[in-house]
Specification:
By secondary structure, the chain is of the alpha/beta class. The protein has three domains: 84 residues, no CATH class; 143 residues, Glycogen Phosphorylase B (Rossmann fold), CATH 3.40.50.2000; 194 residues, Glycogen Phosphorylase B (Rossmann fold). Helix content is 32%, strand content 23%. It contains 15 helices and 21 strands. It has a six-stranded parallel beta sheet with strand order 7-6-9-10-12-13, covered by helices on one side. It starts with a strand and ends in a 9-residue tail after the last helix.
């Protein structure tokens, strides 16, 4: 007996076959073919999903048989869901020594330094699926994206597997299935303990999940490296930020834009709009609304704007979104906001600043590592009703290091008087004074490796095919 159902030019047919099987068994197969302009091309090819007993004796085994059948039905439903909601690539992924995922997240920076003939960049979380990898996933009995990721890597057969998303806990399960590949996670952002789901903070996750492992982790600085070494079975290389290291100071800035009288604030506003009371994050099980998360940014911008007017200084907001996105401009009001229209635009903007001001952005620490004058304001959640959220350690200066609540260029609340006091200090301090202060924390929060020279030397030392640099 046959049943066919069509989805967007595809047809799937389930068939029951009892040939060459015991009388009490049933083989369920799924046949796929592609249609174009109503014409079938390509032959039916069976994908045997399972073999099940159909006449179980009246014993406790009946429950097991029913469970197996339910699993098969779920697999079929999942497959039809895949065909409805995804597009497809037909070619088998090419063999390469290096797999990088996901696309974006600094994978573009890595490609500058590696032999392009030996690199394949994949995006296992996208809606475009590779058909050979999908078939292998199903043949292995997989139903999850992680299973699909494993199948994709198995087809490529790489020597090195790199993720540029170090807080992807699934990556640290890959090593078990890739004993002959070298797995490397590269840190791409600061790690706090709030998350988009309850009890999903990074530090909670690494402490809760056992047996996380990788061959190497490339960390921003020595403080976060200690956390990785404590909770993940991996060797840690302190390499700083790929993107920050790749930016060459002054390369994209016109001299007329340079100013020693400018203050630039780093916006962290997201592109997705939300209502003030929408819950967008959690600290453990404590919800944090959109207004609670971002209200501090508007408070700080207003203080900075008034300070710059009073002191005849230029003030700009370094936008997180493109200039086409109006959300930031509407949120901050009349203050000029620069757009981020290319990956390194934010670096060009901040490179022109005399003083950079941030709450808890990665960019702030990147420019601190460059020796820039940076003011860190750690009071993002000072107006939250819950005390544990108000005093969240992971948004304070230098976290996970334990430092004083206040210092010459950092504070832990939104006090206007304290902010102005530190702005005055940073405005008047000499370059040598600023360098002396910054060097106290050299490499602890963020190391600076211009053009990623040390990182590429490290890659070369473990046998990775790197691009020959001029």
């Amino acid at each position: 007996m046959h049943h066919a159902k069509h989805y967007l030019g595809w047809s799937a047919k389930a068939a029951v076959s009892t040939s060459f099987l015991p009388r009490t068994s049933l083989r369920l197969e799924l046949f796929l073919y592609r249609r174009h302009d109503g014409l079938k091309w390509g032959l039916w090819k069976p994908l045997i999903l399972t073999t099940l007993p159909i006449y179980p004796p009246p014993t406790a085994q009946s429950t097991i048989y029913r469970a197996e059948l339910n699993q098969f039905i779920l697999r079929i439903k999942g497959l039809f869901g895949i065909f409805r909601s995804n597009s497809f690539a037909w070619g088998k992924p090419r063999r390469a020594q290096i797999v990088i995922y996901p696309q974006g997240k600094s994978s573009d920076i890595l490609l500058r330094y590696l032999d392009p003939a030996e690199v394949v960049v994949i995006d296992p979380w996208s809606t475009k699926l590779n058909v050979p990898a999908l078939i292998l996933t199903l043949m292995r009995g997989g139903r999850k994206r992680f299973d699909y990721l494993q199948a994709t890597i198995a087809l490529i057969k790489p020597k090195f597997v790199i993720t540029t998303t170090d807080n992807d806990m699934l990556f640290y399960r890959l090593k078990e299935s890739l004993p002959n590949s070298i797995t490397i996670a590269i840190q791409n952002g600061l790690r706090g303990n709030y998350s988009s789901i309850p009890n999903g903070g990074f530090f909670d996750e690494v402490q809760r999940r056992p047996q996380l492992c990788a061959d190497y982790i490339v960390a921003f600085g020595t403080e976060i490296a200690k956390v990785y070494e404590q909770h993940i079975d991996a060797k840690v290389f302190v390499g700083g930020s790929l993107r920050n290291n790749a930016f060459i100071s002054g390369s994209n800035i016109k001299p007329s834009n340079k100013s020693n009288k400018s203050i630039i604030y780093v916006s962290q506003l997201p592109s997705a709009p939300a209502l003030p009371n929408d819950v967008i994050a959690y600290l453990q099980d404590q919800p944090i609304t959109y207004s609670e998360f971002y209200a501090a940014e508007k408070i700080v911008v207003d203080i900075l704007h008034n300070y710059c007017i009073a002191n005849n200084l230029e003030f700009t907001i370094c936008g997180k979104q493109s200039s086409q996105c109006e959300i930031e401009q509407e949120f901050f009001g009349e203050v000029a906001t620069s757009g981020r229209n290319s990956p390194l635009d934010s670096y060009s903007t901040l490179d022109a600043a005399h003083i950079v001001v941030t709450l808890d952005s990665t960019l702030g620490y990147e420019f601190h590592a460059r020796g820039k004058r940076v003011l860190f304001i750690g009071g993002r959640f000072m107006h939250h009703q819950n005390e544990s959220v108000r005093h969240m350690a992971s948004v304070t200066f230098g976290f996970p290091a334990k430092l004083p609540q206040e210092g010459p260029y950092w504070l832990s609340d939104l006090s206007e008087g304290k902010i102005i006091e530190r702005l005055n200090f940073l405005s008047q301090a000499t370059d040598s004074e600023v360098r002396a202060l910054n060097i106290e924390f050299k490499d602890r929060f963020m190391t600076f490796d211009p053009d990623n020279v040390r990182l590429i030397q490290f890659f070369s030392s473990i046998g990775m095919p790197v691009r020959v640099l001029p």
